[in-house]
Amino acid sequence: MIAGGGYIGLEMAESLVRLGKNVTIVELAPQILTLFDEDFAGILRQYLEKKGVKIFTSEGIQALRGKEGKVTHVQTAARELEAEVVLMSLGVRPQVELAKQAGLRIGVTGAIWVSEKMETSAEGIYSAGDCAETTHLVTGKRVWIPLGSTANKQGRVVGVNICGGNVNFPGVMGTTVFKTFDFNVAKTGLSMREAEKERLHPVQAVVRGYDRAHYYPGGKESTLKVIAEKETGRILGGQAVGEGPSDKFIDILAMALHGRMTCRELASVDLAYAPPFSPALSPVIVAANVLMNKLEGRIEGIQASEVRERVKTSKESFQLVDVREEDEVKKQRIPNSIWIPLGELKKRVGELDKRKEIAVHCQSGQRSYKACLKLQHEGFENVKNVDGGMLCWCYDLESTPIDPSPSKGEG
Amino acid sequence: MIAGGGYIGLEMAESLVRLGKNVTIVELAPQILTLFDEDFAGILRQYLEKKGVKIFTSEGIQALRGKEGKVTHVQTAARELEAEVVLMSLGVRPQVELAKQAGLRIGVTGAIWVSEKMETSAEGIYSAGDCAETTHLVTGKRVWIPLGSTANKQGRVVGVNICGGNVNFPGVMGTTVFKTFDFNVAKTGLSMREAEKERLHPVQAVVRGYDRAHYYPGGKESTLKVIAEKETGRILGGQAVGEGPSDKFIDILAMALHGRMTCRELASVDLAYAPPFSPALSPVIVAANVLMNKLEGRIEGIQASEVRERVKTSKESFQLVDVREEDEVKKQRIPNSIWIPLGELKKRVGELDKRKEIAVHCQSGQRSYKACLKLQHEGFENVKNVDGGMLCWCYDLESTPIDPSPSKGEG
Known about the structure:
The structure is a homodimer.
Chain A: E1 2-3, H1 7-18, E2 24-26, H2 38-50, E3 54-56, E4 61-67, E5 70-76, E6 80-82, E7 87-88, H3 97-101, E8 134-135, E9 142-143, H4 148-162, E10 176-180, E11 183-189, H5 192-197, E12 202-210, E13 221-229, E14 235-242, H6 246-258, H7 263-266, H8 283-295, E15 300-302, H9 304-313, E16 318-322, H10 326-331, E17 338-339, H11 345-348, E18 357-361, H12 366-377, E19 383-386
């Protein structure tokens, strides 16, 4: 039993499964990995469940029960779970008692306040690492993100400054990466949710991120999300999850954040290409192009979570169209979607209702983008492309006989 | 027999060796891979020679001989080589005949001149890809660097512009990567040689570039070079060669070039760290710190090629000091070097001559940096650290019994 679905809990889940243990994660929040958006946390959750990890979200732990000094059961808000060991990975807090007693200023984050020189409120006393707060370079706000990489850099800054030098530690981008089983999970900058909380207007692009040219054998894939600000095109952050080079994609995006790049600038960066290392267009560049398509108003996007909501609540005014091929749809499809393969869209366009809002999806978002353009050309005005398509759909699926469209019933 | 030691030739060398062929590369220039500095081309050369590839440099091909329509021998400036097949990989030139006949302007590079919109000198006619020249974003000069990644981006720009849009392709950083056997070889921006040709004053840092924390099993290493401008600290380029993540390092550096970063800025970027993905300080950041040490005048560096020259020509005024441990020195050492392990340096400092120029080396440059600081502390004024130490020494080596120092003879 692991209490807490953050990255330490998820890393430990792998280790414990490899030791042959049955692992259950209980998380109070509605999703694991709350630093990530719901869709990407959902991709990871599905993967972990396939690996045999049980996950319960939106469930607080109410009590640990046991006998003879050993835990035997965990009582959550919804159930009682048997447990041999309970690993508490509920996060950490900065230990600032000593600093408080010394009269040092504690920052808004609860960690020790420091200047850019890593100097505390008392002249000549410095603080670096997991007890010190710093600045988030996207939001400009004070944050406390304890990481070894940051501590290393801050330590050098303190070292130089106490020896008479004069250097600054400007802050962080919130870059993070971890590995669980064979999934590499990484993030930099803001998530959609975090950007919205900052009252920004974020737009996202979700693409498949291969680590090599499509014809080069042994390829691995991560799903990659890049987020930009609607008005300016400025890159705000990115997330990557999968067996592919998530760390590389996120490092490129972290550098884009440091360079305060727009998605237009990002679309023409000169990254290292040869077939064993990358597709000819880096997935980061493809995502930047998708963002430009959106920002220039070609096609509007819609998030999977919104689609689910609309399918539930706006049946009368909303149509979800699946433009994949038969073999893909047979495996699994989103309940209540209308299936029209891309190639048949033109002749079957009459099956769709122009007065309704239409969201189109495929596997990743590429074919559905083309479908949206076609529908617009046919006079449909309220057409949206589902960001990331099936890749980002972490809700219910059907694998039932195909009923291609409610109005026809062919196939 | 492969004529030409560029990356196509080196990629083919691998394929042919894997087919069981004896492969010889003949290159007119004094080194293979002329886009890279001599030291990094030397690292690769040593690796290829270990894989069984014979390499002759500074040797032009004078004739191909054969009988019955088949080649049997290749005559170079220095020798005659047997050959079953001769692969000509001498580079390509843009095919611009059609453009010339059409009256289009040909650029200084010999490729088709285009504007930032990829429009040729004739309004409404566009050119993209391997026939079109572009701008090098570090030098600002026109260049012709035909690559698939660039062609892809240019193609999109042309596509948008001919459909009534208005976008630019700003140019390239000269980023390139290729794989030969298990070595990943990558570059962005300018080499030391190219920067000197531009009358810049480049300074280099060479570090070991691991792909994970040192204690995490299965690690792979590339040797990484980062180059900055002496006066401003602006990053000018980088090179990486080895089994490690050369492509990732170079992508980070390409992004630093796009962001016009200085090495001070690069030293505090927030890259993705977890033990399976990177050391706590990315090798790129370590290199940026080494560059700062140099630019701030802590310790001057000296390139391996200069050391070799000085050892040859300035015996009376130059001392090369090896501060590695006995087991390392026993394997191989640079001829005419003085061996004093770092730990013994303080007590044996009297063996060195303060009036002479002293270059110190170790395996990678880290221990020799400490040795330089110690020597400066002991009053030595003309002390230099050999960039990259043994990693960058691609010249003669001895593996003879140890004569620890000319003056003592211990060990």
